[in-house]
Structure to design on (190 residues):
């Protein structure tokens, strides 16, 4: 019975020690490089709007006529892939603008944007060969509009990841402190 009471007391003290909350403080300052949610949200919305503007330009391209002219069917497949990625970017940017703290969603959005850039380079090459150089240049110009926001998203992701790493480090240190407090030899009753 005495052993059970000691264990209960030790556990209760450990829980109380680890559960102590610091006194009310001012809101935690935003890390130096991380933009506030409402600051990055307009850039994310513009990324989505840009992808939505890109879709009609992509839909106007007739890659099947290129195939009829002797082009590889891969162009049509890449064009379809770009369309799917652009729609995913438009939807993903809207979702991320509502919850910009989601690192995995931000990374997915950024990778989709990179994928679009890679596939568009090939589509633009096909446009130059099998359509007109002017239409290819028009698509290049439209895609270039996203550059500043893409760079801003990249910086935001790096800073968000750094903040998450810092938070994990602090949580780990706090967990270690609690473990030390729990495993420290207590005073024995006499």
């Amino acid at each position: 019975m005495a052993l059970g009471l000691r264990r209960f007391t030790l556990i209760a003290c450990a829980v109380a020690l680890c559960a102590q909350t610091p006194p009310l403080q001012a809101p935690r300052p935003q890390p130096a490089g991380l933009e506030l949610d409402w600051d990055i949200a307009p850039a994310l919305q513009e990324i989505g709007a840009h992808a939505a503007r890109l879709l009609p330009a992509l839909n106007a391209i007739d890659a099947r006529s290129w195939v009829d002219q002797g082009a590889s069917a891969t162009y049509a497949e890449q064009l379809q892939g770009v369309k799917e990625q652009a729609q995913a970017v438009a939807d993903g940017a809207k979702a991320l603008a509502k919850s910009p703290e989601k690192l995995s969603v931000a990374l997915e959005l950024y990778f989709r944007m990179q994928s679009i850039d890679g596939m568009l380079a090939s589509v633009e090459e096909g446009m130059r060969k099998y359509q007109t150089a002017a239409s290819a240049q028009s698509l290049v110009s439209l895609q270039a509009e996203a550059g500043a926001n893409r760079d801003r998203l990249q910086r935001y992701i790096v800073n968000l990841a750094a903040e998450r790493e810092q938070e994990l480090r602090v949580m780990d240190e706090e967990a270690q402190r609690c473990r030390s407090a729990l495993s420290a030899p207590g005073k024995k009753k006499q």
